[in-house]
Write a structure and sequence with these properties.
Blueprint (H helix, E strand, L loop, with lengths): L1 H80 L28 H11 L1 E2 L2 E2 L8 H14 L2 E16 L2 E14 L5 E14 L7 H5 L20 E4 L7 E2 L1 E8 H8 L2 H7 L2 H4 L2 E5 L25 E4 L18 E3 L30 E7 L4 E6 L1 E2 L8 E3 L13 H5 L7 H11 L6 E3 L3 H6 L12 H4 L6 E2 L3 E2 L7 E2 L1 H7 L46 E4 L23 E8 L5 E7 L5 E9 L10 E6 L11 E3 L5 E8 L5 E7 L8 E11 L17 E4 L10 E3 L9 E3 L6 E3 L12 E3 L11 E5 L3 E2 L8 E9 L7 E7 L6 E6 L2 E11 L7 E9 L9 E10 L2
Parallel strand pairs: 8-9, 9-10, 10-11, 14-18
Antiparallel strand pairs: 1-2, 3-4, 4-5, 6-13, 7-11, 8-12, 12-13, 15-16, 17-19, 20-22, 21-28, 22-27, 23-26, 23-28, 24-25, 24-27, 29-39, 30-41, 31-34, 32-33, 33-41, 34-40, 35-40, 36-39, 36-41, 37-38, 37-40
Length: 862
């Protein structure tokens, strides 16, 4: 019995000892499992994070490859077909991996063709083998497959794809995607409704499509980024005569007097028997003693009106004009006393060249230039260049508009077959990258064209986009003909390349220095002080100066060639010199940080009076990307004036000072200051003056007061709302751009696409009866919008008391891309009726965007 009790005791003791141990082990196991689960979750979420980042990086790299291959194929298509892409329209098919009912390409032309190649791998309704495995569609399939291998649910949808020129050599592929990735177990996820990826594609090294388009594909040329130089300023000799050293200017190939005498016996026989087309391109060099014009026939050699005359004549010896020029009655350009400049022996004693006039020498047949400029006291012989030696391989930025010409076509324009920079692409680049300098230009090679059997337009400028249009050019001084072709340039490109032609003198006095701000063209380059390159430092602080508006119509369209420097809020600029001519314009730009009243203060010291005083002109450049839209002109600024303008935050304004001083002598200095009064009540509803005073506030998602006038959360159907107007697409439902603000429905200009071009579409509320209301009336609504900046597209909110005439409450010209609540005091409508409408106005200049969205409309009357 005792043993049984003892056994029971030990059993109970063991149980008591084991129970805590079991509890401890159980607790430890539970804690370990929890920690293990947490660790696994963290690792899994890290894997998802790195997967997302890798996909974003891979998309950037893929767009570079896809863009380059698409560009190469598009060029090949143009070359092989001989047709440009100007009217090509994007064709969406199931192979594009997008919802074709929702995806829309906003532009036609080369951008549409390249976008279709990048996205779908198709062109002209054909699958392109060159794009196989190099399209966004196939890339998306691969990414989703890789996600499945990693047990991720991947859903990437392409919202928009824009191809925008960034500079002349590069375009950017900008993809907007909705990017959702989930772990299959639901552990973690990534959601991105609007993920932007931008990748550059270079066109350097690719074919220029404009050449095959204009030569039936016989001539191709590759785009090479370099600069064309025409350097013909090496001095071979100078006249040492102090009186009458020479007259005129000429360019031609060298023929020695000694050669003519050896081959023909006399100048008379040479001039009479030689082909006039040959002799007129030669410069006679008297490299030996010259007896004078003893035979009558010799006079034809030096008579410019005779077809058998030389282009010019050079005399090495120090002969006075009486024994040289007058004796032979020279009427062709000539220069004397230069010394021996040729490479042929012997070097005659006493014919040495002075120091600084011996930089080069020439031989028979070489190209040289006679340069006599009495105003500059220059009498020189320069080493010239043969036309077939000009480097025509370079492409460079086209900026002819700075010299009164037209800029060359961008790469996309060239694919479209255009001969100039189009507003479409320039506006896109300005919108995205704040530049319109995307045009390209190069020189044609007429010798290469002729070699391939292409008829050469001999009198045309060599600048490619103007050559194809047949724009005439003038022979460049210092450049000799080769065979039947001589280099020619239009006036604007003579300025661009800084050379003289037979039509325009650009370089002025070689080696001289302009005396600035004296009102005289001292270097004779045809440029007044305020436009002369040598005087730029004097006009620092004077904005971008242009020569414009000779008839003083207060109108100048070249404000953005190039875009002028900016004014900053609260600061002033000082221009030390102005007031030289009525065609003098000084341009600035200003971008306000918010809506408000912009005060511009001008203080000028010019002694002009009356209508000769400076005018100020302001343009809203964001309206259409140019200086033509309804400028506001204020006259006669001197001596001190303050002008005020209502401006919209984020929009760019070009401000011009139109100097009307009639001539030099009225010049002075000025200061110019910009001050922004943000939120000034006079401008709270934008620059348009309306009959209704309104106030606006933007908050987050605060709920409005309770309704007593009219409320619609957009969840019960269209009701009495109406809509219409050109290109009307207003519809109620579930939007493709994000979600409704509340519930599942909102009004949008298009629930599944971007808005249309050329639209003036409106959404109008039902009549709201306020006849019995005496107290305050407030309008609340939620909205978001995105329209194209700089294209003139805008959204408006307007109110009316009769449904016919409308007062503007607000306007927007870019984006408000999150749901935002607005409130407006409409108490002036109390006691009558109220209609409210939402309107989107677009033009045809550029692609479109998401549009205008409205939700939770509420009019309170308490």
């Amino acid at each position: 019995m005792k043993k049984e009790k003892r056994g029971l005791f030990f059993t109970i003791a063991v149980v008591l000892l084991v129970i805590p141990l079991i509890l401890f082990v159980s607790y430890y196991a539970t804690v370990s499992k929890t920690k293990t689960d947490d660790t696994i979750s963290k690792i899994r979420c890290d894997e998802l994070h790195y997967f997302v980042e890798d996909v974003r990086g891979d998309l950037e790299r893929a767009l570079v490859i896809f863009g380059r291959r698409a560009t190469i194929y598009a060029i090949d298509d143009v070359v092989l077909s001989g047709d440009d892409l100007q009217d090509y329209s994007f064709k969406c098919t199931p192979s594009c991996h997008v919802n074709c009912d929702r995806f829309r390409m906003g532009v036609n032309g080369s951008e549409a063709a390249l976008t279709e190649l990048i996205m779908c791998g198709t062109l002209h309704d054909q699958n392109i083998s060159y794009m196989v495995n190099h399209t966004l569609s196939q890339w998306l399939d691969r990414i989703e497959s890789q996600g499945r291998d990693m047990h991720f649910v991947v859903n990437i949808s392409l919202n928009t794809l824009h191809l925008i020129p960034r500079d002349p050599w590069t375009f950017m592929a900008i993809a907007n995607t909705s990017f959702n990735v989930y772990d299959e177990a639901g552990t973690c996820y990534y959601v991105g409704d609007s993920v932007l990826v931008a990748s550059p594609t270079s066109i350097i090294g690719l074919e220029d499509p404009l050449f095959p388009l204009n030569t039936n594909s016989f001539v191709i040329k590759y785009i090479n980024n370099c600069t064309t130089f025409i350097d013909n300023e090496m001095i071979a000799g100078c006249s040492i005569m102090t009186e009458s050293p020479g007259v005129g200017q000429a360019t031609g190939d060298v023929v020695f007097h000694s050669t003519i005498k050896a081959d023909y016996g006399s100048l008379a026989d040479y001039c009479i028997n030689e082909d006039p087309d040959v002799i007129s391109g030669l410069i006679l060099v008297l490299d030996q003693g010259f007896g004078g014009c003893n035979q009558y026939e010799e006079h034809v050699c030096f008579n410019s009106s005779h077809p058998n005359s030389f282009a010019g004549i050079i005399n090495y010896q120090k002969n006075a004009p009486e024994s040289f020029a007058k004796k032979c009655n020279l009427t062709i350009p000539w220069i004397t006393a230069t010394g021996d400049m040729d490479t042929e022996p012997p070097q005659v004693p006493g014919w040495d060249r002075p120091a600084g006039c011996d930089e080069g020498e020439f031989s028979e047949g070489a190209c040289i230039q006679i340069l006599n400029n009495d105003d500059c006291d220059i009498h020189q012989v320069l080493i010239g260049i043969a036309s077939n030696s000009i480097n025509t391989t370079c492409y460079q930025v086209s900026n002819a508009s700075a010299f009164g010409g037209f800029d060359g076509p961008s790469f996309f324009d060239r694919l479209d077959g255009r001969y100039n920079l189009s507003d479409k692409y320039a506006t896109q680049s300005m919108h995205f990258f704040n530049t319109s300098d995307i045009g390209l230009e190069t020189l044609v090679d007429p010798f290469y064209l002729d070699y391939h059997g292409i008829t050469v337009t001999e009198n045309a400028t060599w600048v490619d986009y103007l050559y194809w249009k047949g724009v005439e050019g003038c022979a460049v001084k210092g450049v000799c003909p080769s065979d039947e072709f001589v280099m020619r340039l239009d006036d604007a490109h003579a300025e661009v390349l800084d050379v003289d032609t037979v039509c325009v003198n650009v370089t002025g006095c070689p080696g001289s220095t302009e005396v600035c701000v004296d009102g005289a063209d001292d270097d004779l380059d045809g440029q007044p002080d305020w436009l002369d390159y040598d005087c730029l430092i004097y006009f620092t602080g004077c904005g971008e100066i242009h020569d414009c508006d000779y008839d003083d119509l207060d109108f100048c369209t070249t404000c953005d060639s190039p875009l002028p420097p900016g004014l900053t809020d609260g600061n002033q600029v000082t221009c030390d010199y102005y007031g030289y001519n009525t065609s003098e314009w000084h341009f600035y730009q200003f971008t306000p940080s918010s809506d408000g009243l912009l005060d511009l203060t001008f203080t000028g010291t010019s002694n002009v009076t009356g209508d000769d005083r400076t005018d100020i002109i302001i343009y809203n450049y964001s309206l259409d990307g140019m200086c033509t839209s309804s400028p506001e002109v204020r006259l006669n600024m001197e001596p001190v004036n303050l002008e005020s303008y209502c401006v919209i935050g984020g929009e760019t304004y070009i401000i011009a000072l139109d100097v009307d001083a009639p001539r030099f002598g009225y010049n002075g200095s000025y200061t110019f200051r910009a001050d922004l009064d943000a939120g000034n009540p006079a401008c709270i509803s934008g620059p348009t003056t309306t009959s209704t005073t309104t106030t606006s506030s933007t908050t987050s998602t605060t709920s409005p007061p309770s309704v007593c006038g009219f409320f619609d959360d957009m969840e019960s159907g269209e009701g009495l709302w109406t809509h219409g107007g050109p290109q009307d697409e207003w519809e109620l439902g579930d939007p493709w751009w994000g979600n409704a603000y509340s519930g599942s429905s909102c009004w949008a200009t298009d629930l599944s696409h971007d808005y249309n071009k050329n639209a003036n579409e409106w959404l109008e509320s039902p009549e709201i009866d306020l006849s019995g209301v005496a107290g305050p009336v407030t309008l609340y609504f939620m909205d978001k919008y995105w329209v194209v900046l700089g294209a003139g597209d805008e959204v408006y909110v307007e109110a009316s008391s009769d449904g016919n005439s409308w007062d503007e409450l607000m306007s927007g010209s870019w984006r408000e891309d999150v749901w935002t609540q607005h409130s407006y005091d409409l108490s002036s409508y109390a006691g009558g009726s109220l209609w409210v409408r939402f309107r989107l106005d677009s033009n045809n200049d550029i692609f479109t965007q998401y549009g205008f969205y409205v939700d939770d409309f509420n009019v309170t009357c308490s």
